[in-house]
Amino acid sequence: MPAEVAVAAQEEDDRMTDPTPPGAPRPGIEVPDARGRTHLDRTGRDLDRNPRVVVRDVRLLTSNWYVTRTTAFDYQHADGTWSRQERETHDRGDGACVLLFDAAARTVLLIEQFRYAAYVNEHPDGMLLEVPAGLLDDDHPETAVRRESQEETGCVVGEVHHLFDLYSSPGSLTERLHFFAAPYEHGSVDHGARAGVRAEGEDTRVVELDVDDALGEIGRGIVDAKTVLLLQWAVLQGPFSPAGWNPAPPRALLERT
Ligand SMILES: Nc1nc2c(ncn2[C@@H]2O[C@H](COP(=O)(O)OP(=O)(O)O[C@H]3O[C@H](CO)[C@@H](O)[C@H](O)[C@@H]3O)[C@@H](O)[C@H]2O)c(=O)[nH]1
Ligand SMILES: [Mg+2]
Hints:
Elements: H1 3-17, E1 53-63, E2 67-76, E3 82-91, E4 95-102, E5 107-114, H2 116-119, E6 127-130, E7 133-135, H3 141-153, E8 161-167, E9 176-183, E10 194-195, E11 204-210, H4 211-216, H5 225-236
Parallel strand pairs: 4-9
Antiparallel strand pairs: 1-2, 2-3, 4-5, 4-7, 5-6, 5-11, 8-9, 10-11
The structure holds guanosine-5'-diphosphate-alpha-D-mannose and magnesium ion.
């Protein structure tokens, strides 16, 4: 594409993504956006941990519920040559999720909820079975899983074990998910009960499943990646594994990594 055409296309692109009149302070950059955030275009500009990556420009595309940026950076390939790349990132903060299990009863506690993103992408009705999970919202990950367990299942958990932290979808999402497991008592929960924070539009249904039945639903009734991952961890290395599971004693609060 000739340089002048590329510049015109870029300006057109900017007009389409930024409704702010030319010269006016831009929400999310110079002045707070609807959620009180500023300087959202600064994220990533100072990255220098990898000498093969030099960030050249960060543009804020949207700052609504989540933040979308496009970042231009130079990347040095294995053969030593550099190329300019542009990548959009979707930033909604980090999240945490928890497998609630009863090792003796061989049950797990899941929730059913409507997920529009799955519905619009060919899921039959958007009603997904998942482990309780939520965005951190500035809380410590362990605090977040305690909060989400209670809000989404009504279950107040005691000991909580941190397992690992994983990037959910590193091609485009910045999100890192903190994974936990926590025992609950089969019989203490109301199967089919409704929960969730109504004010936030949440409407969850508590679903207690035999762990082997849950495994049998992978790829059918259970299509949420973090849930599949936790179920497989539980039977391979966790409380339902043949060798059993001896978690390290829980700490009061984990260091945030
Ligand atoms: N208005 C509005 N509200 C939203 C939007 N997206 C989410 N919300 C609100 O934010 C709440 C988020 O609920 P959480 O329980 O905190 O998060 P989650 O959606 O369950 O996210 C968890 O699962 C995701 C999918 O696997 C994970 O990606 C995420 O890290 C977390 O673990 C929703 O109930 C909804 O009210 C949006 O685009 N617009
Ligand atoms: Mg949730």
